[in-house]
Amino acid sequence: MNKEPVLFLAIVKEGMASRLLKRAKQAGASGGTIIRAYGTVQSNLLRSLGLQGAEREIFLTIVPKEKEADIHAHLEDALKLKKKGTGVLFSFDVSSYLGNQNHSYLFNEADQENKDQLLVTIVQRDLADQVVDAARDEGAKGATILHGRGSGAHEKSTIFSIQIEPEKEIVWMVLPANKIKQVTDNISETMKITEPGHGLIFSLPISSVSGLIGQGKKA
Questions:
Q1: What is the separation of C-alpha 154 from the centre of its chain, rounded to a whole number of angstroms?
Q2: CA–CA distance from 41 to each of 45, 58, 90, 144 (Å)?
Q3: Between the N and C ends of the chain, which has fewer C-beta atoms within 10 Å?
Q4: Which is higher by pLDDT, 113 or 183?
């Protein structure tokens, strides 16, 4: 990729994320990840996102910048977003992305103005602890692990000709910009991320962060 890739995030009613995955692939996405969610806290934010009081799914996919408008149109149509309560769709520029050898965008510290980064790694179930260990070997302080399910071009298990989406684990960690490359490289080498179907890593710039040991700054 010559330009920063784009992360799409959609929050939808339970059962709709697989439809989004299909439409995203039709528009050129190589795959995606689905995370189940449930909103319980009384919150205007959760209410506005459609997450309060019912099961929801969070859909994630990363695409080349030049496909952003086309994929956004496909997902918007699939969600029928003009109808109230059908879901919400966001897109974000990411600062790095590493999947298989044909899809990568390397982190450039000079472009990030020393901003902290959210580093996200998606791997097969039961492998998240290996990701955390690889990150700690390069100085990362801690991480959060989420469970999801995903489907990509190299991950197609079927039963009676019905495609089954394998379960995933998602590791989130906040790192200073000057540690992103070394942590990403070690995770990639340990988990063989560049091999088809072994997962992906991406990072997002953070505007402000509080509550982390040794950190607490704002942009």
A1: 18
A2: 10, 17, 22, 20
A3: C
A4: 183
Each residue of 16-59: pLDDT tens digit?
888 899 999 999 888 888 877 654 444 555 555 555 556 778 88
| pTM of the predicted model as reported, rounded to 2 decimal places | 0.73
Provide the 8-state DSSP code for 110.
G
Buried b / exposed e across 72-99, counting CB within 10 Å, b at 16+?
bebbeebbeeeeeeebbbebeebbbbbb
C-alpha 192: how far from chain center: 18
Whether residues 11 and 65 fall in one domain = yes
CA distance 11 to 111: 30
Residue 188: exposure state from Cβ atoms within 10 A (0-12, 13-18, ≥19)? buried
Domain boundary among the residues 93, 127, 161 is at 93
How do residues 61-98 score in pLDDT, each as one tens digit? Answer: 888 889 999 999 999 988 887 676 677 899 988 999 88
